[in-house]
Design brief:
This protein is mostly helical. Helices cover 40% and strands 8% of the residues. Strands 1-2 form a two-stranded antiparallel ribbon. A two-stranded parallel sheet has the order 3-4. The N terminus is likely disordered.
Length: 129
Amino acid sequence: MAVLQQELTFTYPERIKNDFLATRDIAFSDGSRVSAAQIWDFMTVEAPRRFPHAFDARDSHMGKLSDDVDFFSGIKREYLELSLRDRAIKAHEQGVPLILTQGGQTMETYYAAGGIPLRPGLIMQWPAT
């Protein structure tokens, strides 16, 4: 007899919102910034809709978000990961080369040359986002 597992969806609790909003912006090398409020909106409204797999809270789901919600830099790291495609496409549209690498070599030389190195495993996930 099969047992249906209840779908579990991870959400950030409102109790951390004000403290999270008091954290610093993320500043990018192109001079752009993203505020804690923008990150909160992305991670609580847009990202769960666009990336439901990332918000799958089942223990068996290996790619789930950290449930250590009081570790604010962890939330910002997840934001950076989930928004990478958007930021890379924006940079490419502004003339920054996106460089497909196979891995094994350092990435610093590509950044130093003004490009953004990307590995195939990461790019393969993009069509689903």
